[in-house]
């Protein structure tokens, strides 16, 4: 059932929120072993929250627009009474959180039920959700392939039908990459629009948060609850749309190139816009991420480096050693590049680009071709997402209706214009161009 259908059934009394929660917990126990989306089942908390929803219905009170809807929570969001591990055993002995993260509070206030914490790359530093401590999340469409990361547990959980909504974070593509590879809707909100309070930081100056869902309507319900205000209505027929060229048209797989050509043709997006210095923008995102992440973890690394995932530890240590002049140059480029992206929107409302180079890589397929060279697939899943990170603009990941494995596109709008993205996404869903891919469709 979609989030919309669950909420309607619970609000009408056709189903109880407790019954929905029990069914979801049973389903996770039975099926998650094949995918490893979940790190902790929140049985007691889920049933207690669901009982409150049922009590509101019985007493004639409004249970909220997401009444009884289960949601998964990337394990970097605080949950009252639970230790926030951020995918690392380094934090496993920390005291439990005293309160829920703000976004978790808002979903519960809207009637949603926290059902499980979800797997992630350690400290959100990765694109694969391959965690040395908690295991690898497998793509529900082919368990021999990556789900993407770092929010892969939430994206794969939605794709597998374990829960209709998932919370994730996106610094360099951690919502956009797994949404594309798992075939679900994902939103990286405008940086700063949704509160990050109660989420473990990775790169404070770049971190954003957002939801996953199996339908755009569900994503909208979730985003409006997270944003605490309704979206404005926009007529998608009059939107000016262009396609990002250059960097964003190179290195795609044949299926992705075909899908993007079809999307551009359907939208009449014949104009190509080339953003300048994309390679340097991506490099700047690497530098800023490494430097801020390294600085955050350096005190703990000096004491307990052996407890980190070795791959994450080495990148954090390298980041902590970056010279100040290089970090300054990266931040200077970030400001310059953001201004150039703003200029690109002078004559358009939406820019479109691929989310990833192609289909989800196999675990035994460590390399992909980029720029004529064979490079690490995992390190380059953010090829098209990392440069856009610097601008802080909202991006909607659209699951394209294509044969074979899922593919996703990025729709980019000016800051604060999520309403435009939802309007265009709705048009694509109604036109049959976009459709989320659950394991049964």
TrEMBL record:
Domain of life: Bacteria
Pfam families associated with the record: Amidase
GO molecular function, one term: catalytic activity
Stored NCBIfam families: amido_AtzE, PRK09201.1
Protein's recorded name: Amidase
